[in-house]
Structure formats: structure tokens, C-alpha cells
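#struct-pred
JK: can someone run the complex with flavin-adenine dinucleotide? inputs below
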Amino acid sequence: MQLKQNFSLQPYHTFRTAVFAKEFATFSSLEQLAELLDYAKQQPTLILGGGSNILFTKNFDGLVLKNELKGITLIKEDADYYYVKAAAGEVWHQFVLYCIEKQYNGIENLSLIPGLVGACPMQNIGAYGVEIKDIFYALSAYHIKEKKMVNFTLQDCAFGYRESVFKGKYKNQFVITDVTFRLSKQPTFNISYGAIEQALQSMQITTLSAKAISDAVIHIRSSKLPNPHELPNAGSFFKNPVISITQFEEIKKEHTSLTGYQENNELIKISAAWLIEKCGWKGCRKNDVGCHTKQALVLVNYGNATGTEIVDFSEGIINDVKNKFNITLQREVNII
Ligand code: FAD
Ligand code: EPU
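RT: done, C-alpha cells with the ligand placed:
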């Protein structure tokens, strides 16, 4: 057990704010994880993956445990599917590329999402028409208080839009140690998200394949999302709000460009980026915090922003969207 004291977390999270952990350690086996959690006892503990969905507003007064569990195994197959288990410390995008190479289909739309496998069920990551719930089979997690492994099925996880039991009722109770995906033997090309088709056309790709879709997704993402290594950020800072169709129609009377994705007979999901842009925030900057110039949903750190400054900036956006549209934006990023 190698513990480091007063340890800088700045290189370990993509917003790159300057914060320290009272103690820090890595774990690459379940035994090490159990030993470290025993050591931590009552002090606060934070499991860290790639740090791409976290905003630290202060130093962490406890033990940060960086996940380095590795390994990918094909555990079984049937007529239609491969069941592939990945340890929680595998890098998500590397895992996606590995699956594409092996012709394990259905994961390709989730290319280039930063972070590690272990965090993907936390908020049921999603992009370009696919969410984890669509390819999820099971996961294993360590119950911190009861000191035992627990298996979760798809139903157990209660996945929703950027939600799961691990972000909700079991928050901070489990460490996810591996995730098993059910990936199709036959290609399942999902190009329902308009931007994919446009990208395939502009890249002059005429033969569909999982690799082609992955390339198109990488192309779209690279063209509008800031690379955290160049401009620190945590992806979408807010969730897209789900509003009533009545409210949608009301807003649309004045703003004809508003579009939405109908969830059911009563509710419709609309673009938070559009709302933020309409409130005049896109491209705005205050000191070192900014609203990205190409994607209004992403807040960026131009250098020395603090977590508190980023939260204050986001508060300004929330207030303006509330005043103009009577919609309360929810933050997607985990604020610590
Ligand atoms: P971290 O940020 O390290 O952790 C996130 C939360 O999960 C924390 O609360 C942490 O304590 C907890 N946690 C992490 N690992 C475990 C574990 N093993 N067990 C228990 N708890 C754990 N998200 C999307 O859904 N779709 C996107 O398209 C998308 N695009 C992004 C683009 C950019 C440029 C960036 C920076 C982020 C984007 N994200 C997106 C958000 C982020 O990449 C995902 O949420 C990702 O899954 C976070 O993984 P991570 O390993 O970095 O998690
Ligand atoms: N739009 C604007 N202004 C902008 C950006 C977008 O008006 O500055 C409008 C446009 O009409 C555009 C629409 O919003 O057509 C949708 O934009 P985009 O395709 O970029 O998707 P998004 O709704 O802004 C969501 C996810 C992303 C995910 C993409 C692709 C959330 C909170 N965000 O963004 O996830 O990659 O769809 O599926 O659901 C993340 O969670 O961190 C993340 C990046």
C-alpha cells in the first residue's frame, strides 16, 4: 500500500483546477482496494477514474483511490452475442477500439468518450443515439461498508438519462470493479443521429462498418468538443432538460428554431446548449472560466480558474435560463 500525502490532483482530472488530496493511492487488485478501504475507515473516500466528469471546488480532505484494475475477457458467447467483461480501470476509448477490432458490435457510437470503464455505468454514458444501457449485461461492485462483492443486472442499475442507482440511492456505497457488455455478432449500425450521416457523407464513406461509424463519431466530436488536454473541461456541464410538450409549444411560438426529442406523450427533451446560446452565454468568458465557443453546453478552464469560479459561472447560466425560459438546468458534472 503506497500512500501519498498532500497530493496534487491537478493532473488527474480534466478540469485541471489546482486541488490537493489529503491522501492518495492507486489500486490494481481487489485485495489492494479492500486493504485501502479498511485503512480509510471513517474518513471520506473518493474513487477516481479518468476524472472527466468531476469538478473539485476544494481540496479533498480524505483518501482518493485511483482505479488501475486492468483486463478484458470474452466470458461467453451465444448464437447472437459476445459477452465481454472489462475491468473498471480500462480506458473507455481503448476498450471501444478493441471491441471494434474484434468485431464485437454495438459500442462504436460511444467512441472517444473520455474516462474509464468503471465510470460508464455511473451516469449511463451516452452519445450519438446509444447509451450504456443498450449494450450492458452485468457489473460487479464492492460494497464498501459490508466489505463484499455484489453483482448487478441491467434492471438493478435502474439506468436513466445520465442516471443510475450508483449516482442515486447507492451514491458512494459501491466501487464498480468490472462491467460486462453484451455485444452483437451481427453489425447493428445505428446512424439515427443526423450528424453521423452528414459526417459519413462529408468523409466520403459509402460502405458502413463499425469502424466507419466510430471514425465519423470521432470526426464530429473532435470538430466541436474541446480536447481536455488542450482546453480543460468535463464535457457537457448540464443535462438536456425534459419539459412538457405544452411548455415546448409555448417556447416554439417565439423561437421557431427550437427542436426536441419526444420522450413520451407528455414530455420532450430539448437542447440545453440552445437555451444557453439564446441567453447569450455561448463564447462568454469571465476571468479564466468560459462557455465554449463551439458547444455552449461545455464550460472550460482557460488556465487558472478555481472550481468555485466555475460553479459561480454555471449559476449565472442557470439563473438566466430560468428567467428567460422558466426552465431549471441541472448540472451533469459531479461537484466535489
Ligand atoms: P470520473 O470523472 O473519474 O468519475 C465520475 C464519478 O464516478 C465520480 O463521482 C467518481 O467518484 C465515480 N466513479 C468513477 N469510477 C468509479 C468506480 N469504479 N466505482 C464507483 N464510482 C466511480 N459523458 C457522456 O455520457 N457522453 C459524452 O458524450 C461525453 N462526452 C464527454 C466529452 C468530454 C470532452 C469530456 C471531458 C467528458 C465527456 N463525458 C461524456 C463525461 C465523462 O467522460 C463520462 O461521464 C465518463 O464516464 C467519466 O469517466 P471517468 O472515469 O473520467 O469518471
Ligand atoms: N446546439 C446549440 N448550440 C450549441 C450546441 C448545440 O443550439 O452551442 C443545438 C443544436 O440544435 C444541435 C443540438 O443542440 O443540433 C444538439 O447538439 P449536440 O449534437 O452537440 O448534442 P447535445 O445535446 O448538446 C448531447 C450530450 C453529449 C453527447 C451529444 C451527442 C447531454 C447533456 N450531452 O449533447 O454528451 O456527446 O449529445 O450525443 O446529453 C456529455 O454528457 O458530457 C456529452 C458531451
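RT: quick notes.
The chain is about 25% helix and 30% strand.
The pocket of EPU (ligand 2) is lined by residues 127-128, 195, 235-236, 239-240, 271, 273-274, 277, 282, 295-297, 332 (CB under 6 Å).
JK: thanks, will look after standup
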